[in-house]
């Protein structure tokens, strides 16, 4: 029995090693995802290119521009002297944001009136637009406070403190780095991608090439064959996930806050579900092409709905409920909880039990259906 | 065992009223036969006649719709797992791992069949020699040419020394020399006491078998030795050579006493009822139809004639 499973596993590893596509997925995907999400994709928006049309060009207006630059939300990329030049900078994509300061800006402030400036925002990316409006508002607010305090001081009312001060304390990811937020998700993605797609491939390839039929006439049992298919991809995805964690530590200084043992235990649970899903995909697919399509059909909603990239809190109610059908949702909650928050199982139960039910059902179902339909 | 009069050797395959339907298509229709130990038993029939379906049922890949069969004394439905260790199977398409080397394929099947570790090295050496693959052990199976692939497949199917071998169109798409060499290997295996169940649509190959079953549209039409099958053709077989073979077939089809007519190469083979028609009569009729007849003679039937004869009589039954 073990000899047959061993033969299957050995064979599978030789094939993984010889198939560039599989090998690429096993080795290159974790590295690529880590670097891409770590360096490339920054979900915190800052350093928006800003074009300045400053007609006032006095100390107050220059102070406003400097304040915007210093906020790090904006980078001044260009100074223009006409309205048209400002508009065309946004049209041409040189800048995402423009500020137009009219000639009487500084004098109005000196007179004790309101200094008005216009903010023009490229709304084609709503995230950029809302961040820009929000950040510019903050800057304007800070400038106002400064000016008011100065004016009050001039009238002999110095030493006033502003009424309310909010001091934020960020737990779990104090530096608010995207990479810290992404790494747990990357691990979830590696785990589900590799297991679903590669397991489904490994079985449908045998069906497509006729080797499955040859295997069925040997004394090998269906569950031995199943195990022989599952084990290699369990190993590769585990190695990939560990590699990603190690890489994150070396490159980005990422550390796991919580219990590694608990993380591994719950990851095995998630893996079981994903492997089962891979086998189910292989049951309904005749060819590798069909397997790819079916797997994509499952995986794309998983990525979109699970909170991997888009925050689930910002989703409409109905979409959020749909996300509850996706196992990756629970796994990402668990991994973020353990890796970033360092919480124990007592805080994770609400994510653990749905995952437990899902994994048992899917794995059981795949075992039964796989038995029935092998050829 | 009332029907067993051919041989006294033990029965290794016993098929009773085996039927398999795919939807409304009946691929194998109420087939019954027995195969004896040490026989080379051939199933002859065109593509889609039910040969592979029969083999796949006997190997436990496919469940029968009705009927029963035993292989090596085990029931193919209830005891399929027990059959598997005792049989070797070669499917009609190359079904080994193309991305594994010759040796890795053999080693994989040796492990799957639990070939004793101590004997394995020697056994693999024998198989490599048998298949003539010495020096190619490290070559990827996918890079072998057709003939080599077939031999490797035979090697993998016999790695555990099975007493019964199922070969489903083993020589399809293989060049004539490789086919000849392959049949030499099959003879060697039969001489060593193994039973061979082979399917083919090559008529010349069926001549190699001890007994041939002719299957057509899922029905077993005849089962006997090649010689007996040829004798079973009723009537007289004529070989007609003319300058216009197609016109000859058309003209003869309308003649009285011509039971069957078919083109074979440039000649026309016709089965006649001697009571109603003769070689001389045909010659005269063709000449009067303006066809240049060069020769009309009586010949011994080949398996092809038998096959055409059986296929055409079957059509009359169903019509």
Walk me through what this model shows.
The complex is a heterodimer of chains A (375) and B (319). Chain A is 67% helix and 6% strand. Chain A folds into two domains: 2-41 and 176-372, no CATH class; 48-154, abc type-2 transporter like domain (abc type-2 transporter like fold, 3-Layer(aba) Sandwich), CATH 3.40.1710. In chain A, strand 1, helix 3 (59-70) and strand 2 (74-80) form a beta-alpha-beta unit. The model of chain A has no long low-confidence stretch (mean pLDDT 85). Chain A contains 14 helices and four strands. With 375 residues, chain A is α/β, with parallel strands linked by helices. The model of chain B is unreliable at 1-6 (pLDDT under 50). In chain B, helix 3 runs parallel beside helix 5 (146-157). Chain B has helices at 51-58, 80-84, 102-112, 117-130, 146-157, 176-191, 203-206, 226-231, 245-253, 279-288, 303-318, and strands at residues 11-22, 25-36, 40-44, 66-71, 74-75, 87-90, 164-168, 195-200, 211-216, 219-224, 236-242, 258-264, 267-272, 293-298. Chain B is built from eleven helices and 14 strands. In chain B, the strands form three sheets. Chain B has a six-stranded mixed β-sheet, sandwiched between helices. With 319 residues, chain B is an alpha/beta fold.
